[in-house]
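Thread: Newbie trying to understand structure tokens

Hi all, I'm a second-year student working on a class project, and my supervisor (Dr. K.) asked me to get a predicted structure for one chain before our next meeting. I've only ever worked with sequences, so writing a 3D structure as a token string is new to me. If someone could post the tokens and maybe explain what I'm looking at, I'd be very grateful. Here's the chain:
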Amino acid sequence: MRAHGYPELMPVIVVGADTRLGGAILDRLRSRQGEVRAFVSDPAVAERLRSDGGVKVALGDVSDGSHLGGAATGCFSAVLVTEAATDSRKRSFASKPDDVWTQWAGAVRDAEVSRVIWVGDIGPDVAGAEVAAVPTDDRSPTDIADEVARLDEAAHI
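---
Reply by user tm_fold:
Sure, no problem. This is what the structure looks like when written as tokens:
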């Protein structure tokens, strides 16, 4: 049973699931009931996640808001790992982190995601959604993943 009496957790997507923090978050969320999706740029990680099972995988450019929006359609929560906008991966649609985060905000807004959890720096506000940030300073990936799961399970954030 979900926290606060909800019978099942709604779908969640983790953008940047191929980062160190994203992987820890994805592992933590896989143990919950409800659908878990991963948006990754690394084909090897996508293949591993597909073969492990339990996660729906979208492979693409994290700066492509339209692809991300499609992958997030039907999700209740979106976990946006800001490291995926600042690391060394190729980004073709936006090169600056703020521009990537703006793409993400627009994508999850258009997908009508109800809850947005920024991991790291908080990005743009997402109109119509509950928004929270999980800072990463001096915290272990496990602690961060646990906090994300707590926010995902909460009745309100």
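A couple of things are worth pointing out once you decode it. Helices lie at 20-30, 43-52, 65-72, 97-110, 141-153. Strands lie at 12-15, 36-40, 56-59, 77-81, 115-119, 130-134. Feel free to ask follow-ups in this thread.
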